[in-house]
Amino acid sequence: MILRTSVKAPNCVEAVISKIRKKAGECGANPDMVEVLYGEMISHFIKIELKEFNKNNETNAG
Length: 62
Known about the structure:
This protein has one domain. The protein has helices at residues 4-8, 10-27, 31-61. The protein is mostly helical. Helix 2 (10-27) runs antiparallel to helix 3. The chain is 87% helix and 0% strand.
């Protein structure tokens, strides 16, 4: 059974943010700005995934 916390995957998000901050610094970009941008993108992707998750669980429950 897949749980909502699996969809959010906080450990994966932290790993991505850490990696992208490092890459931003190496490329001369502002790590704080890149973190905010990636954070927003990840947040929106998670919302989309949760909608699908909820839709699929409603379909499978009924």
